[in-house]
Amino acid sequence: MELKNLRVDGKRLRRSLEEMARIGATPGGGVQRLTLSGEDKRARDLFVKWLKELKLELTIDEMGNIFGRRAGKDNSLAPVMTGSHIDSQPKGGRFDGILGVMGALEVFRTLQENKVVSERPLVIVDWTNEEGSRFAPAMCASGVWAGCLERDWVYGRTDINGKKFVDELERIGYRGKAPARKWPVHAYFEYHIEQGPLLERQGKTIGAPKGIVCEHWNDVYLQGEANQVGPTPMEGRHDALCAAAEMILKIGELPERMGGNMVATVGEIQNYPNSRNIIPDRVHFTVDIRSWDDEHALKAWELLKEELKAVAARRGCPIEIKETWRIEHQPFAEPLVQRVLDTAGELGYSALYMVSGAGHDASYMNKIAPTAMIFVPSIGGRSHVEVENTRWEDCEAGANVLLHCLLKTAGEK
Ligand SMILES: [Zn+2]
């Protein structure tokens, strides 16, 4: 068969996705595969089994990242890498992350059964903890691998129950021996669902993001004064939850006040002691700000910080603000983005040049290697929810674009 006529097996890709979706399946039709949980371990075990069937050279590093290397014609050349993540949000969807891992696996299977050997080696990867919902921050294992985050800092991160990242990694048996340290990569492609509505609205099948917005993660801690709710007059209360409520509305309104392209979200909140008849004395919430314009996001955050402090002072609730994590916006390698657009066209799929509003491991990979992503539509633009869905034919289309982007790029001298 002529190489340009090579296509993945869409039915096999669907079967792999369906088998993975059974691990951590939720009643609402989604999956819950939190990082380093039992479900994460079972999905990893299945992935490793499939890598072994392809006789790939398997490496698990000290962050639990899983790599499968497929030899090329010239193994002295740096490989082309592709992959994504197996973990999910709490009550997340069946496509986020896993599509990029199963899509890459399907490409490798297609190459294997057609006895195609690329010039450069190819590497498939599953990055640990992309989501960052159990252990903040997100994308921390690709961050360590790329040399942007400290391994021991990530090892010491704790979940809401005080469990440490390193202990959980050890417990599920995925604390590998190989150092989590970058090696030369010729290019990195990540295949993913769009997680937004643009492709669907514009009736396009393939998205080629020019890059990823910046992300600023902050944590706010408020101290109030607990008391019996009945006998305590409203006047003179120090209600930490009321203070948080006022702050959260300010955060929701921030993008409109600032103008320009940005989003701001409070997604997580803990209220203590969380009893209906005690005035809340302790609240923690998260703040997530994203924009293509790093300066704009920083300016917004500086303004917001002053406003939050003013609310805290007026309500007599001492505030502590921790800047948890920040990553600048990442413009991808233009020739590779163009390759995604061209390849989609050659295969007969419509395509859209766009921006990724979601963070991906591609953010860190972009710092060390030419990087691009391939998006397919999310039905209704919904993601990080149980109803997250993508048409099977679109899953297949994205995998075909990945196949040919990898072949072209791995053919470069
Ligand atoms: Zn993802």
The helix count comes to: 12
The hetero compounds bound to this protein are: zinc ion
What shape does the CA trace take? elongated
Q: Residue share in helices? A: 25-40%
**How much β-strand is present in the residues?**
15-25%
Number of strands: 14
What order do the SSEs take from the amino end to the carboxyl end, as H and E? HHEEEHEHHHEHEEHEEEHEEHEHEH
Which regions are unreliable across 5 or more consecutive residues at pLDDT < 50?
none
Main beta sheet: 6 strands, mixed
Strand order of the largest sheet: 1-2-4-3-5-14
- Radius of gyration from the CA trace? 23 Å
Terminal residue distance: 23 Å
Structural class, by secondary structure, is alpha/beta
Mean pLDDT: 97
Q: What's the short version?
A:
The chain is an alpha/beta fold.
Task: Record the SSE blueprint.
Elements: H1 10-21, H2 38-53, E1 57-60, E2 66-70, E3 80-84, H3 98-113, E4 122-126, H4 140-145, H5 151-155, H6 165-171, E5 187-193, H7 198-202, E6 206-212, E7 214-223, H8 240-258, E8 262-265, E9 269-272, E10 282-291, H9 294-314, E11 319-327, E12 330-331, H10 334-346, E13 351-356, H11 362-368, E14 371-376, H12 392-410
Zinc ion binds next to loops.
